[in-house]
Amino acid sequence: MDLTDMWQIAIKSTKIRRKRLASLETFEETRLPYILVSDHPRSADQSNVRQGQVELGKPRLILPDAHPQFEGFDFDQLQADENSIQTLMYVRGVRLPSLKFKNVQNHQLYDGTTEDALRQYGRDLARAENVETGLIQGREDVWPFALLFYVSMLIVKNLPKDIERMLEEFRERPPDSR
Q1: For residue 131, which of 4, 21, 158, 170 is within the disulfide window of CB 3.0 to 4.6 Å?
Q2: Structural domain tally of the chain?
Q3: Under a CB-based contact definition with an 8 Å cutoff, are residues 21 and 143 in contact?
Q4: Which H or E run contains 131?
Q5: What stretches of 41-129 adopt beta strand conformation (E)?
Q6: What pLDDT digit, counting tens, does each position of 94-108 carry?
Q7: 121 lies in which domain range?
Q8: Cβ within 8 Å of residue 32, ≥6 positions away
Q9: What's this model's pTM, rounded to 2 decimal places?
Q10: Which one, of 174, 2, 4, 173, lies nearest residue 88 by Cα?
Q11: How far is CA 38 from the centre of its chain?
Q12: What whole-number distance in Å separates Cα of residue 31 and Cα of residue 57?
Protein backbone atom coordinates (compact mmCIF):
# COMPACT_ATOMS: atom_id res chain seq x y z
CA MET A 1 0.00 0.00 0.00
CA ASP A 2 1.46 3.40 -0.93
CA LEU A 3 1.34 6.57 1.14
CA THR A 4 -1.56 8.07 -0.80
CA ASP A 5 -3.67 4.98 -0.13
CA MET A 6 -2.72 5.06 3.55
CA TRP A 7 -3.69 8.74 3.82
CA GLN A 8 -7.04 8.11 2.14
CA ILE A 9 -7.75 5.12 4.38
CA ALA A 10 -6.91 7.17 7.47
CA ILE A 11 -9.20 10.02 6.42
CA LYS A 12 -12.10 7.65 5.74
CA SER A 13 -11.67 5.43 8.79
CA THR A 14 -10.62 7.85 11.54
CA LYS A 15 -13.37 8.85 13.93
CA ILE A 16 -12.90 11.51 16.54
CA ARG A 17 -14.99 10.14 19.39
CA ARG A 18 -14.25 12.96 21.80
CA LYS A 19 -12.77 16.26 20.69
CA ARG A 20 -10.41 18.39 22.65
CA LEU A 21 -12.46 21.35 23.88
CA ALA A 22 -9.59 23.50 25.12
CA SER A 23 -8.14 25.96 22.59
CA LEU A 24 -4.66 25.58 21.19
CA GLU A 25 -1.98 28.04 22.27
CA THR A 26 -1.39 30.91 19.84
CA PHE A 27 1.97 32.23 21.00
CA GLU A 28 3.69 29.18 22.44
CA GLU A 29 4.04 25.42 22.09
CA THR A 30 0.87 23.35 22.56
CA ARG A 31 0.64 19.84 23.94
CA LEU A 32 -2.22 17.77 22.54
CA PRO A 33 -2.89 14.71 24.71
CA TYR A 34 -4.73 11.89 22.99
CA ILE A 35 -5.90 8.31 23.26
CA LEU A 36 -5.98 6.46 19.94
CA VAL A 37 -7.81 3.11 19.95
CA SER A 38 -7.67 0.60 17.10
CA ASP A 39 -8.58 -3.00 16.42
CA HIS A 40 -5.93 -5.57 17.22
CA PRO A 41 -4.92 -7.18 13.92
CA ARG A 42 -4.96 -10.76 15.28
CA SER A 43 -7.52 -10.75 18.10
CA ALA A 44 -11.10 -9.48 18.17
CA ASP A 45 -10.98 -9.62 21.99
CA GLN A 46 -8.12 -7.11 22.26
CA SER A 47 -7.52 -3.54 21.15
CA ASN A 48 -4.45 -1.45 20.57
CA VAL A 49 -4.32 1.71 22.66
CA ARG A 50 -1.83 4.50 22.04
CA GLN A 51 -1.81 7.12 24.76
CA GLY A 52 0.38 10.13 24.39
CA GLN A 53 0.67 13.69 23.31
CA VAL A 54 1.69 15.56 20.21
CA GLU A 55 3.76 18.64 20.90
CA LEU A 56 3.16 21.36 18.32
CA GLY A 57 5.66 24.12 17.80
CA LYS A 58 4.41 27.71 17.98
CA PRO A 59 1.95 28.28 15.09
CA ARG A 60 2.93 30.52 12.22
CA LEU A 61 0.52 31.92 9.68
CA ILE A 62 3.26 32.89 7.26
CA LEU A 63 5.40 29.83 6.76
CA PRO A 64 9.11 30.04 6.10
CA ASP A 65 10.61 27.92 3.36
CA ALA A 66 11.44 25.20 5.87
CA HIS A 67 9.52 21.95 5.89
CA PRO A 68 7.59 20.44 8.79
CA GLN A 69 9.44 18.03 11.06
CA PHE A 70 7.70 14.90 12.34
CA GLU A 71 9.22 13.12 15.32
CA GLY A 72 7.81 10.00 16.99
CA PHE A 73 5.25 9.11 14.31
CA ASP A 74 7.11 5.94 13.24
CA PHE A 75 6.64 6.63 9.54
CA ASP A 76 9.65 4.38 8.89
CA GLN A 77 7.47 1.39 9.87
CA LEU A 78 5.23 2.34 6.94
CA GLN A 79 8.26 2.33 4.63
CA ALA A 80 8.09 6.12 4.40
CA ASP A 81 10.63 8.79 5.12
CA GLU A 82 9.95 12.35 6.26
CA ASN A 83 10.41 13.76 2.74
CA SER A 84 7.71 11.41 1.40
CA ILE A 85 5.33 12.54 4.12
CA GLN A 86 6.05 16.21 3.41
CA THR A 87 5.46 15.64 -0.29
CA LEU A 88 2.22 13.76 0.38
CA MET A 89 0.91 16.60 2.54
CA TYR A 90 2.02 19.25 0.05
CA VAL A 91 0.33 17.50 -2.90
CA ARG A 92 -2.88 17.13 -0.86
CA GLY A 93 -2.88 20.86 -0.11
CA VAL A 94 -2.35 20.30 3.60
CA ARG A 95 -0.50 23.24 5.09
CA LEU A 96 0.21 22.97 8.78
CA PRO A 97 0.86 26.30 10.53
CA SER A 98 3.37 24.70 12.84
CA LEU A 99 6.69 23.36 11.65
CA LYS A 100 7.53 20.93 14.41
CA PHE A 101 5.43 17.94 15.47
CA LYS A 102 6.72 15.63 18.16
CA ASN A 103 4.73 12.57 19.22
CA VAL A 104 5.47 10.96 22.58
CA GLN A 105 3.37 7.91 23.36
CA ASN A 106 3.06 4.55 25.00
CA HIS A 107 1.41 1.60 23.29
CA GLN A 108 -0.49 -1.06 25.17
CA LEU A 109 -3.03 -3.81 24.65
CA TYR A 110 -6.52 -3.48 26.09
CA ASP A 111 -8.35 -6.68 26.98
CA GLY A 112 -11.65 -6.03 25.25
CA THR A 113 -13.05 -4.94 21.93
CA THR A 114 -12.35 -1.56 20.41
CA GLU A 115 -15.86 -0.41 21.37
CA ASP A 116 -15.26 -1.56 24.97
CA ALA A 117 -12.01 0.41 25.10
CA LEU A 118 -13.62 3.52 23.60
CA ARG A 119 -16.48 3.38 26.12
CA GLN A 120 -14.07 2.89 29.06
CA TYR A 121 -11.69 5.69 28.07
CA GLY A 122 -14.63 7.96 27.23
CA ARG A 123 -16.11 7.40 30.70
CA ASP A 124 -12.71 7.99 32.33
CA LEU A 125 -12.24 11.28 30.47
CA ALA A 126 -15.77 12.44 31.30
CA ARG A 127 -15.39 11.48 34.97
CA ALA A 128 -12.13 13.42 35.18
CA GLU A 129 -13.76 16.36 33.33
CA ASN A 130 -10.79 16.27 30.99
CA VAL A 131 -11.33 18.80 28.17
CA GLU A 132 -7.82 18.55 26.73
CA THR A 133 -7.48 14.88 25.77
CA GLY A 134 -8.92 13.69 22.48
CA LEU A 135 -10.31 10.19 22.01
CA ILE A 136 -9.72 8.86 18.51
CA GLN A 137 -10.67 5.64 16.76
CA GLY A 138 -8.46 4.66 13.86
CA ARG A 139 -6.92 1.79 11.99
CA GLU A 140 -3.72 0.32 13.41
CA ASP A 141 -2.01 0.01 10.02
CA VAL A 142 -2.30 3.78 9.39
CA TRP A 143 -2.26 5.14 12.95
CA PRO A 144 0.33 7.91 12.24
CA PHE A 145 -1.96 9.35 9.57
CA ALA A 146 -5.01 9.05 11.85
CA LEU A 147 -3.11 11.06 14.45
CA LEU A 148 -2.04 13.69 11.91
CA PHE A 149 -5.65 13.93 10.71
CA TYR A 150 -6.79 14.60 14.28
CA VAL A 151 -4.11 17.26 14.82
CA SER A 152 -5.00 18.90 11.49
CA MET A 153 -8.67 19.07 12.48
CA LEU A 154 -7.76 20.81 15.74
CA ILE A 155 -5.53 23.31 13.94
CA VAL A 156 -8.27 24.18 11.45
CA LYS A 157 -10.81 24.56 14.26
CA ASN A 158 -8.48 26.90 16.16
CA LEU A 159 -7.36 29.06 13.22
CA PRO A 160 -10.01 31.82 13.58
CA LYS A 161 -9.08 32.26 17.26
CA ASP A 162 -5.38 32.39 16.39
CA ILE A 163 -5.95 35.12 13.80
CA GLU A 164 -8.09 37.10 16.22
CA ARG A 165 -5.46 36.84 18.98
CA MET A 166 -2.63 37.82 16.62
CA LEU A 167 -4.54 40.88 15.36
CA GLU A 168 -5.40 41.85 18.93
CA GLU A 169 -1.75 41.64 19.96
CA PHE A 170 -0.72 43.67 16.90
CA ARG A 171 -3.24 46.42 17.73
CA GLU A 172 -2.12 46.60 21.36
CA ARG A 173 1.56 46.94 20.52
CA PRO A 174 2.93 50.49 20.35
CA PRO A 175 3.58 51.59 16.74
CA ASP A 176 7.35 51.96 17.29
CA SER A 177 7.75 48.29 18.40
CA ARG A 178 6.18 46.80 15.24
Answers
A1: 21
A2: 1
A3: no
A4: none
A5: 46-56, 69-71, 100-111
A6: 555 555 778 899 999
A7: 3-177
A8: 20, 24, 53, 54, 55, 56, 132, 134, 151, 154
A9: 0.75
A10: 4
A11: 15
A12: 9
